[in-house]
């Protein structure tokens, strides 16, 4: 058999590729695969990155707002006038609730008093994994709703913390504190200091898959910053009592409204600012809109005869009169085209300046004020704080009206001297009377302890108190002597304003009310009484105004008793002892 050489042997099935050729083919395949991935990466990162990021976020990433705890509003002793209590937000995952949305929306709308169609829309929100269904739900209510959701077999509904604003004292200081809506402040300090109280919301962002948080995926959180507390100068107990007395007075005299203010004579701090009618801050919508603000700051009116003590103090300071200055007071005084009358008919009276104040004589006041020019009178009244806002941090405060000297006629000046043809708010007038109590130095009123910044950028509080001398200590003392005779049972018109055991200095006020629409008097009255005690060492100033009473009376008979009760409580509450001295007997006639 012939031999075959090794070179002649061939593998069956064709020629085998060399290693170099196989390597080239492999590298080509790898290049193709890498090119595919490179093209995809370019598409994702270069051509349309935002659309793909948005798709990923919409599908898998959940972002939650973490509410900040709102700061408390406190009285001067740290007692809460407004705070936050446990509440819950009801949350839906539309990815899980969409299929059962109609039935679930019906249940939630019924249980939480929600709009059905708005709720249905949230339960079906495409591309969302997180929708607020209800905010600020009481914790007990939220638990009951979640139980019913589970019992009915629904899924995709959960709850999270969402504090609810609460007003523990209800009506007490509601006119100052204000109230909250669902997501925003709607009145009072809640609005004026919202930036301070609200803090900053936080956020949580995480990736979710099939309704569960993915452990190793995106998971970040920015913690909320809770709001700061606002400590006021208000004394909750004294505020409650002041509101009680004021409300009873308004009701007993069938009046339209009333205000009462209590001020610390030395520091200017407002211890009580009461309005009647008022409202319950927990249920503000149950009250008329006119009752939701503070009339003590927003309502302006003619102060009437309380103004006479400011005129008297100015005259004494200018060296024009003393408490013993003698005046002949006729029964009527002809001025320009109108006569000036007193509240009581009389012939010619021989009154001292103290008697003019004690008997509240318009004519006597005008005769004394004849010694002062229009500019001088305006300058003093302006220094007392009339015609300018107190700026204590209450929104909507009116500045009142004090006619400038250039526009003031002789007739204006006469009427301004005894409290008409000008307007004030109650806190302005309280601070003016308190200037006399404080030895002639006007100390600016405060409603906030320390310092706080309002949302419109004003710094307010006791740290920013100002002091301005308006009249001399002797002028203030002489005016006090005149005011003390007002409550004297023999000499004055307001014996019912006395506080047993204490010396009291005060002044009545009765003024016609102006109608803004017609620019005329509407036939109703504002009755007031303002004063301080102890007269010879003043500790508190109290001012009460009753608007449009339906029963006959004057400032002494209507405002006087309310003043007496409020002042007595303030003195007792702060343990102020009587000075032990007898009331002065400066003569009221000659």
Describe this structure in words.
- With 590 residues, the chain is an alpha+beta fold.
- It folds into two domains: 71-231, Penicillin-binding protein 2a (Domain 2) (Alpha-Beta Complex), CATH 3.90.1310; 236-573, Beta-lactamase, CATH 3.40.710.
- Helices cover 34% and strands 21% of the residues.
- The protein contains 19 helices and 24 strands.
- The strands form eight sheets. A five-stranded antiparallel beta sheet has the order 13-12-24-23-22, sandwiched between helices. Strands 1, 8, 9 and 10 form a four-stranded antiparallel beta sheet that branches. Strands 7-3-2-11 form a four-stranded mixed beta sheet, with no helix packed on it.
- Strand 22 (505-515) and strand 23 form a beta hairpin.
- It is elongated and about 140 Å long.
Q: What's the quick description here?
A:
This protein has 590 residues and is of the alpha+beta class.
Shape call: elongated
CATH architecture verdict of the largest domain: 3-Layer(aba) Sandwich
* Average pLDDT figure: 89
Tally of domains: 2
Distance between the termini: 173 Å
Low-pLDDT stretches: 1-14, 51-59
- The CATH superfamily of the largest domain is known as DD-peptidase/beta-lactamase superfamily
> How many distinct helices?
19
What's the alpha carbon Rg, rounded to whole Å? 38 Å
Q: According to CATH, what is the topology of the largest domain?
A: Beta-lactamase
Biggest sheet layout: 5 strands, antiparallel
Keywords: Membrane
Family: Belongs to the transpeptidase family.
Protein name: Penicillin-binding protein 2
InterPro entries: Beta-lactam/transpept, Beta-lactam/transpept-like, PBP_dimer, PBP_dimer_sf, PCN-bd_Tpept
